[in-house]
Amino acid sequence: MTDREVKVLGISGSLRSGSYNTAVLREALRLAPAGMQIEMADIAGIPLYNEDDYAQGFPPAVERLREQIRAADGLLLVTPEYNYSMPGVLKNAIDWVSRPPEQPFAGKPAAIMGASPGRFGTARAQYHLRQSMVFLDVHLLNRPEVMIAGAQKLFDPQGTLTDEPTRVHIRGLLEALYVWTLKHRG
Ligand SMILES: Cc1cc2nc3c(=O)[nH]c(=O)nc-3n(C[C@H](O)[C@H](O)[C@H](O)COP(=O)(O)O)c2cc1C
Known about the structure:
Layout: E1 6-12, H1 20-31, E2 36-40, H2 51-55, H3 60-71, E3 74-78, H4 88-97, E4 109-115, H5 123-135, E5 139-140, E6 146-148, H6 164-184
Parallel strand pairs: 1-2, 1-3, 3-4, 4-5, 4-6
Flavin mononucleotide is lined by residues 14, 16, 19-21, 80-84, 116-118.
């Protein structure tokens, strides 16, 4: 790996097989600029957070995610919006990962995007996610904001993102994340 190459971990906050957000993350893998490699995390196996379980140690799925975050130069968080916030599965994964020792989010460069069939394209969820990331000392990219509204109209029946302006917008975010990650990685 050269010093111009960055490894980004993508985390989708949806477990749904037909998820728009996971599809958007898959598209990001295709749109990544030269020098950026994106790997997709899997949060499906993470149990519900319970302090009693934490006292016994991190479950394997959590340990794996912590290691993936630690190994990544940057993060790409893709969130659906549930009841004006991020889904519980994503918050639950973040809560597990955030526990001591050495929570791995600290100091990571990151970007957020999200897709929703609604009119606001996950804006409210993204700002809740940003709030949690501030507490975890993540270095969040401010712009461009990728809030994909009316998502059901932007995919083909196979679940591939076909809307060109949206693809260009995502590409812009990835290019900004690339520069941001080079600037901020430890
Ligand atoms: C419990 C629940 C709450 C939702 N609340 C919102 C909401 O507040 N805003 C919104 O735009 N969409 C809302 N939706 C619709 C989701 O945006 C939609 O189901 C979307 O497809 C979820 O993302 P995914 O396709 O990646 O799974 C909600 C869906 C569920 C299941």
